[in-house]
Amino acid sequence: MTHQTVVAFALLGVAGQAAAVALVGAGSLSYVGVTAPFRAIRKALWGYELWLGSFVAALATGGSLFFSDIAHYAPGELCWYERICMYPLAAVLLLLALANDHRAARYLLPLPIVGAGLAAYHVLVERGVVSQSKECILSAPGGCETKWIDELGFVTIPVLTLTAFALVLGLLLLAGVSE
To answer: Which CATH number fits domain 2-177: 3.30.70, 3.20.20, 3.30.1490, 1.20.1550?
Structure first.
C-alpha cells in the first residue's frame, strides 16, 4: 500500500510540474508580448486560484504527514523548515478562498518563496551537489541527503516539495493578477 501511495504522489508531482511549466511558460511568453497563452490560463482559472493553491498546499501537507507518520520516513532538518513554510499555506489559503479575498494573497508570497528556496537547496543536498550540514546529518538517519523515495528516476520528496511551492507561488501570483 505504501509503494502505491508513493507512486500516486510521484504521478501527482509530475502533473504538478507540467502545470508549473505551463504557468511559467505562459508568463514568460506574456512578458515578451505573446499574451494569448497567459490569458487562456487566467480565464480558465479565474476565481479558483486560491482554491487550487489551498488544494496543492493541503495535498503537500498530507503527503508530508503520510511520509513521516505512515511510511515512517524520518524528516530531516530541511524537511522541518519546509513544513514550517507549507503547513500554514493550507489553512490560510482555504480561509482566503472561502472569503474570496484575492488581495490578501500577496501577503503569503514570502512563504512559498522561502519554501521553494529551501526545497531547491534540499534537492542540491540530496543529489550531492552541496554537502549537508552537521545538523542535517544528526536530524535524521542518513541526514538530508537520504532519498526516501526515487520514482521515475527524478521524483524525490524534496522535488515534490519544490513542485508544490512552485505551484502555490504561481497560483498566488495569478490570484494577484486576477483582480
So the answer is: 1.20.1550
